[in-house]
Amino acid sequence: MATTIADIRGLSVTFPSKKGTVRAVDAVDLSIEEGSIFGIAGESGCGKTTIGLSLLGMIREPGSVEGTIAVNGKDVTSLRGEERRLFRWKEVSMVFQGAMNSLNPVSSVGEQITEVIIDHTGGTRKEAMNRAADLLRKVRLPSDILRRYPHQLSGGQKQRVVIAMAIALSPKLIIADEPTTALDVVSQEHILRLLKEVVKASGSTVVIISHDLSLIADMCDRLAVMYLGRIVESGRAQDVLSSPAHPYTRALIDSNITLDKRGKKVESIPGYPPSPINLPSNCRFSGRCPFATNECFDSEPPASTLEDGRVVYCYHPRHGNEGK
Amino acid sequence: MGLSVRFLVRRALYAVLTFFIALLMIFIIPRLIAVSPVEIIAASQQLPPSVIKLLTAQFGLDKPLYIQFLLYIKNVVFTFPPNLGFSYEYYPQSVWSMLVISLPWTLFLVGSSVAVSAFVGTMAGLYAGMNRGKALDKLLTYTSMATQSMPYFWIAIMFQIILAVVLRLFPIGGAISITDTSPVMSLEYIQDVLYHAMLPMITIVVATTPVYAIIMRNTLADIIREDYMVAGEAKGLRKSRLYYKYGLRNGILPIVSLIAVHFGYVVGGALLVEIVFSYPGVGTLLFNAILSHDYPMIQGVFYILGITVIGANFIADLIYSYIDPRIRYS
Q1: What is the spatial distance between Cα B114 and Cα B107, in angstroms, rounded to a whole number?
Q2: Strands A222-227, A37-41: pairing kind
Q3: Among residues B19, B33, B203, B308, which one has the fewest Cβ atoms lying within 10 Å of its Cβ?
Q4: Could A115 and B249 be called an inter-chain contact, meaning their C-beta atoms sit closer than 8 Å?
Q5: For residue A62, is the peptide bond before it cis, meaning its omega torsion is within 30 degrees of 0?
């Protein structure tokens, strides 16, 4: 029986705005098993990144967090001050979306890797430098990169530096937020392989946040699909992707461009998601769902568990799979 | 360090070119005034035409304009000390000898005030910017609004009335009270100088500190949203590192430019303050020169001003390249 490394219960993250309160994440339950690779999929603005930041205790004011987040037995939402500072990166680290901009432009790579080691473990600069060179070797970068500045590196090199930084303190959990979006296809492939390898070696648990289902299919054991701040379907990645139960998951798969679909029409999802301000109290996907019935427009569907252990929030799970 | 030589050479050439354009303007502007100095002398003294011709030749005004300019360049650039001519007002004192007396006072006054306000303002702006919407941030925003709506000279006059006239804490004006003794670096002399400089300094500091603070704060407002700041926070770095290596290092470039600009105020900004406190600096010199139509003196002050501004900007460029590796290696 695998242990749970991260457990999220009833998580809601809200941000006040001029037009009203934005519910970026709404009543989400998630549990992530130790040593697994967990995927969170969904389109832009569905709350994927916000969940990632919540796991680090990084929701800035005026945003507010409700519910509980337990990582490695620690309640993240109650951490404050020095305790929170030391929790960050030591327990949970992150490969940020757009690694290009997540490096400090005025510091060298060496400084940026060593500073995190020094600020957490208090060792000497020399020890930290040796460790940094070690980390670069792990991500297959030559050690002279340590003296370089971010603007002197290529996109792929920066991404490797960011990964090296994420594993610097051997954290329990690594969140990779769109780890390959800004890279060309060849580098994407390299980075993913590297990420998988590095993670396996370190024994960390990884959460991959992406809109790219083929990437998630490639990498993840389990998967949660999000729509407008809610999880609509979650289960084993293989099950979810081979026979999606929620119409939104189905639509997301159909809109994905892959080589084996060459010649076929790529389906886009009609309409736009409703505004995260004043969320509807019915099924959030009902306005765009081809299978929506009256009850979908009236009330929110409860969770139902399918025979393969998958959880889906839909009145008509598996609808529309026939004939596909 | 790997400072790019090409960058240095390019900046130096740019500074030299700017200096020559400045000289050209300093040279041309008085010549745009239709009346020549010879005519002024002739009108007041009823001189015969032969003497007028002689004077014109002596001033070099009979030569073509470009020869006059070359002579001017030779005098102010390739002669040391620069031959800036004689003051009309304080004849036979040369313009240079007057500048040499006034310049140290202004450099001392403006230099120390700018150093204090740049440091205090930047730090206040850094803490306000990193703690947006908190008490210090609000205090800073309101005080800067208040001081920026008050003119320089008005602040000077208020300080003079309250601190010097009413409370008698500081002298009303001047730079030293012991004029008879030679400026030996005795403790008394230094005390006296500081005592006299205090009010003009406070005025400049009060007027310019909020400018630094607000610029730093507003630069940080953009920087704090950058991915690398979020990443820095997520990395659980110490607060001091986040403030200085992330916030300050990335937000300080506009501050460096502002310091260079404020050095341009060696004359401009300090002018009114110097006049209010009768401080014997370059500002007062310029003010008196304008009142008495002392053209060589005015030209001399602009010459010094040009060198200061261009020099300060060149140094700012060097500091830029030291701070920002993207400039250093470009």
Answers
A1: 10
A2: parallel
A3: B33
A4: no
A5: yes
Of B233, B245, B329, the CB nearest to A107: B245
Place of tokens 């990166």: A89
Q: DSSP E strands: which ranges in chain A?
A: 4-17, 20-33, 37-41, 64-71, 74-75, 92-95, 173-177, 205-210, 222-227, 230-236, 303-305, 311-313
CB contact under 8 A, B236 and A94: no
Listed residue (B17, B219, B256, B239) closest to B119, CA to CA: B256
Rounded Cα distance, B113 and A170, in Å: 50
Q: What per-residue string of b and e applies to A240-257 under the rule 16 or more CB within 10 Å gives b? A: bbeebbbbbbbbbbbebe
Separation CA A220–CA A39 (nearest Å): 6
Pull the structure tokens for residue A170.
């051997």
H helix runs in A103-184, sequence order: 109-121, 125-138, 155-166
Contact of A29 with A67, CB cutoff 8 Å: no
Chain B residues with CB under 8 Å of A84 CB are: 236
CB-based contact B216:B280 (threshold 8 Å): no
Taking CA B147 as the corner, what is the angle to CA B260 and CA B257, rounded to the nearest 5 degrees? 15
ipTM over 0.90: no
* Helix orientation angle between B135-148 and B187-223, rounded to the nearest 10 degrees: 120
Task: Encode pLDDT of B172-193 as tens digits.
Answer: 888 887 665 555 667 888 888 8
- Asked if B236 contacts A120 with a C-beta cutoff of 8 angstroms, the reply is yes
Record: contact B237-A116, CB cut-off 8 A:
yes
Considering only the beta carbons, identify the residue of A89, A115, A152 that sits closest to B329: A152
Match 């949660």 to its residue by tokens: A224
Banded model confidence at residue B1, pLDDT cuts 50, 70, 90: very low
Is A176 an interface residue toward B (CB < 8 Å)?
no
**pTM to 2 decimals?**
0.82
Could you give the strand order of the β-sheet that contains A4-17, starting from the edge strand earlier in sequence?
A20-33, A4-17, A64-71, A74-75
- B-contacting residues in A 242-271 (Cβ below 8 Å): none
H or E element in which residue B81 lies:
none
Interface with chain B: mutation pick from A84, A89, A106, A119, highest number of B CBs within 10 Å: A106
Please tell me the number of Cα atoms within 13 Å of B270 on its side-chain side: 36
- The yes-or-no verdict on residue B29 having pLDDT over 80 is yes
On whether the CB atoms of residues A274 and A284 are closer than 8 A, the answer is yes
Question: Are B134 and B222 within 8 A, CB to CB?
Answer: no
CA A95, chain centre distance (Å): 10
pLDDT in tens, B73-132: 999 989 888 988 888 788 788 999 999 999 888 888 988 998 999 999 999 999 999 998
Nearest CA to B77 out of B23, B31, B17, B14 is that of B23
- CB-based contact, A93 to chain B, within 8 Å: yes
Nearest Cβ partner for A104 among B228, B234, B238: B228
CA distance B306 to B301: 9
Contacts of A53 in chain B (CB under 8 A): 234
CB contact under 8 A, B238 and A102: no
Contact criterion met (CB < 8 Å) for A108 and B226: no
